[in-house]
Design brief:
Blueprint (H helix, E strand, L loop, with lengths): L14 H6 L8 H8 L4 E5 L6 H12 L23 E5 L9 H13 L13 H16 L3 E6 L3 H4 L5 H20 L4 E8 L7 H4 L5 E2 L12 E2 H5 L3 H11 L3 H12 L11 E2 L1 H10 L5 H4 L4 H9 L10 E4 H4 L10 H6 L4 E6 L4 E5 L3 H16 L3 H6 L1 H10 L3 H13 L7 H21 L1
Parallel strand pairs: 1-4, 1-5, 2-3, 3-4
Antiparallel strand pairs: 6-7, 8-10, 9-10
Helix pairs in contact: 2-3, 4-7, 5-7, 10-11, 17-21, 19-20
Length: 444
């Protein structure tokens, strides 16, 4: 019998659309319900394209009281009242690419004006004043507290991390914008903020002193990403269909998926999770590719790694205290916090006696991505040279256990490194390239 094709929500981050249009949905609404009742002010950090936007959309539908969207889902056993609340949902990813404080102010104001519930008030001029006015008017109009949901709160700042003067100016704009969230606590039912990094000196961390950071909380460690259990139940038909494409057994297909896309931990004792973006793309296209890396290497990460002269070969097994990889972004002394927060490293183990974590590369996709995506940009080498030249030949020989051929490729490459007049410059170039391919060998 021909299998029924399933619809995969690749590029779709709206809970309502996923449910109404019958896309594949992994039910996490029981954890969403726990999150909604955990605290009033909550912050959660997760890597890009890991489901944060879908989570914020699900919370929006829940607080709006859209009960019909949740029929048949786990939350129905937990929620009894379904009281609707006014919701302000802001996605700050739309403010990327603003490189002055003035541009950022204008972008924030436009974002607020796009809210369905927005009303213009000539007395309100700054983004913070307009946000405060919006919260208070909604409370007065409905008689109910407001749910404020902010996705990618740090998006405006990431691209200017390397420019301290610009960062300071833009941070002041963001501080003014976030102050009303604390100042109007009596009008706020729930406030949820997501991002990649943790800027402690922003007002949400310095003035909202009761903000609960759940980034490393075991209870919410699997709220983004797919667990092994979810792959073997809800997503198992997709594994079986993919196995048929590859002409292997479902169990063999499972092992390939696990090797490539699994391995993320967001708490010490939490289950591993698969990268949801890559897994869904794999099901959609029927190919094992590195979809997460193909979606782009963050510029801010590259610049910080270059700034701190990060040793790429030291990242595979790091024994560190929590304070080392969960530092506030503005207090970083190396790129480790960003590598973890961005998903290039993950928790692999925890020693309760020393309170130390072991951080490592999550899976094969990230390992390959270091060579094909991160390292070429980091070192300045051409990505085509990496993907089609020495690295590909060298890895293919190693994969075939042909050490002689691998060494032959290595010797041919090294022999091609120029050593002529102006040797200091050439030597520096060679050192860069040799160091790069040393890193390539290490990663494979």
């Amino acid at each position: 019998m021909e299998q029924i094709m399933r619809k995969y929500p690749v590029g779709i981050q709206t809970f309502e659309r996923i449910i109404k249009e019958g896309f594949v949905y992994v039910d996490k609404t029981d954890i969403v319900w726990e999150l909604a009742h955990y605290a009033t002010y909550i912050f959660m950090s997760r890597p890009r394209r890991f489901g944060k936007s879908l989570l914020t959309s699900t919370l929006e539908s829940y607080f709006k009281g859209d009960r019909e969207l949740f029929e048949g889902l786990k939350i129905m056993k937990l929620e009894k009242e379904w009281t609707p609340y006014p919701v302000i949902h802001l996605d700050l990813s739309s403010t990327k690419g603003r490189f002055t404080a003035q541009e950022l102010r204008r972008a924030l104001i436009l974002l607020l004006k796009r809210q369905d519930v927005y009303e213009e008030n000539p007395d309100e001029e700054t983004p913070g004043e307009k946000l405060e006015g919006l919260i208070r008017r909604l409370y007065k109009k409905t008689g109910k507290q407001v749910a404020v949901i902010i996705d990618e709160y740090d998006a405006p700042l990431l691209d200017v991390l390397h420019d301290q003067a610009t960062l300071d100016a833009m941070r002041k704009v963001m501080q003014e914008f976030y102050v009303p969230l604390k100042a109007n606590e009596q009008y706020v039912k729930f406030c949820f903020i997501t991002g990649v990094t943790k800027f402690s000196q922003l007002s949400i961390f310095s003035t909202i002193n009761n903000l609960a950071n759940i980034s490393l909380e075991e209870t919410f460690a699997t709220i983004c990403g797919f667990t092994e259990e979810e792959l073997c139940t809800t997503l198992w038909p997709d594994v079986e269909r993919l196995a048929a494409v590859f002409k292997i057994t479902p169990d063999e297909m499972h092992d390939k998926l696990k090797l490539r896309y699994d391995g993320y931990h967001f708490a010490a004792d939490a289950p591993e999770v698969y990268n949801p973006f890559s897994l869904l793309n794999c099901f959609l296209h029927g190919k094992l590719k590195n979809y997460w890396f193909a979606s782009g290497t963050p510029t801010f990460l590259i610049k910080q790694m270059q700034h701190f002269h990060t040793d790429i070969t030291s990242l595979d097994s790091l024994d560190v205290p929590e304070s080392a990889f969960d530092q506030p972004t503005e207090n970083m002394k190396d790129a480790l916090p960003l590598l973890y927060q961005s998903g290039y490293l993950t928790i692999k183990d925890y020693d309760p006696d020393t309170e130390a974590y072991i951080l490592s590369i999550p899976n094969q996709e990230v390992r390959v991505g270091y060579v094909n995506g991160l390292l070429p940009t980091y070192t300045g080498l051409d990505s085509g040279d990496v993907q089609l030249g020495f690295a590909a030949k060298f890895w293919k020989a190693l994969r075939q256990s042909d050490i002689d051929l691998a060494m032959s490729h290595m010797q041919s490459y090294l022999a091609g490194i120029p050593y002529v007049e102006g040797f200091k410059q050439k030597l520096a170039e060679a050192a860069t390239k040799e160091g790069f391919y040393e890193a390539v060998a290490w990663i494979w």
